[in-house]
Amino acid sequence: MYQKSPGQLFIKYAIPQMIGLLFNSIYIIVDGVFIGTRLGSKALAAAGVAVPVVELLIALSIGLTSGAGVVISSRLATKDYRAARSAFMHALLVQGCLSLLIALAGNLFLHPLCSRLGATADIHSLTATYLRYIVSLSPFLLFSYLLGGLVRNDGRPRLAMAALAIGSLSNILLDYIFMYPLNMGIGGAALATAVGPVISVLILLPHFLMKKGYLYFQKDRLRPETLKWFFTLGFPSFVMEFSIGMVTFFMNYGIIRYGFSDQGLAAYLIIGYFMLIILTLFLGMAEGLQPVFSYLHAASEKVKLSSLLRIAVSVFLILGLVSYVLIYFYSIYFYRVFTPGDPALATYAAGKSKLYFAGFFCAGLNILMISYFQSIQAPGRALLLSSLRGFFLPAVTIMILPAAAGLSLLWFCHSLSEMITLAVCLLLWLLPVFRSS
Prior knowledge:
Elements: H1 6-39, H2 41-77, H3 81-108, H4 110-116, H5 124-136, H6 138-153, H7 157-179, H8 185-209, H9 224-257, H10 261-298, H11 302-338, H12 343-356, H13 360-375, H14 379-405, H15 413-430, H16 432-435
Helix pairs in contact: 1-2, 1-7, 1-8, 1-10, 1-11, 2-3, 2-5, 2-6, 2-9, 2-10, 3-5, 3-6, 4-5, 5-8, 6-7, 6-8, 7-8, 9-10, 9-13, 9-14, 10-11, 10-12, 10-13, 11-12, 11-13, 13-14, 13-15, 14-15
């Protein structure tokens, strides 16, 4: 399964997952285009307030998928196929229980949730309408990521890519149908987003039902130690993925706290679409490499593992630097797509982007190393880096930096958090006391 050269493995596993997640991000962005052009800036702000919930759902699924994926890849490396299938069945059980709990709790506490997320009185009802569709159909979103990740661990990364891509393209078509001919408003945008994963699940299920790989359904008994490994190994990925939603939450809080108003919220939403594209490139490649890192580590192929990591570091660094150059000079053209009737908002967002994305070359390297540490079963180091960039540093910098050095530096806080995290990452990698831990 992993007998190719490091360069070939990078292309086979990192690139398809990156493309699949990129399509997934595109449908979220197209959703924003439809909302902005059809419904205006208040609806954009409402969708932006709802982003942390969507990111939480994705993060929960990717966290479980990553934890199960590390266990499954390790079992496949030692040819313990029944244990790999047992881990697969445990993952399905946990995801099923989690899905039902989220759908139920999300509907019961919908309006308090909107308030806690920062929805103002002007956009509260729009936010609630958007979120109701998302949480009600959340089981399909959760299972689309889980099944896609497990298909990738089972040696079919292109199928995982196809499922994500087709589900995303269907969402774009449904966006148009629900928002224009059917005139469903922001609820139509949310429904289109929620239905796309249903199609992805239908594409992925035959792989397991028809036993096309090592993973398929079997009778199994619950083993608490397996669940413990899932959560221990998967938690750093949960934090890493949810960091997008947490940074959005902290930034929305900062925008309101420091008086940037609804214009700031709307601008940050479209900046967030650009952020989503860039982080998707990094997250997709890192997720794609996870089964390879795990397999090579379990099989003790250290030379091949080190070579693959060097290739990945080079690609991530170059991609991060090129992305910032493009953002610095051309981001305004991207933002104008979302605000055809409000050119001032596009100009405002482009100006803030130069600070906001200044340290995103660090973000890619941080994401890669979190995935690497997790894959070689060093969850403590992975969790430290995930927590720094996703929770602790954004909260601290947003609370302190704008108040101490100027309100405009609010837009630099995310990049500063990534820069500090990368410095810590280098310490973990270079100092012997950390490398041997």
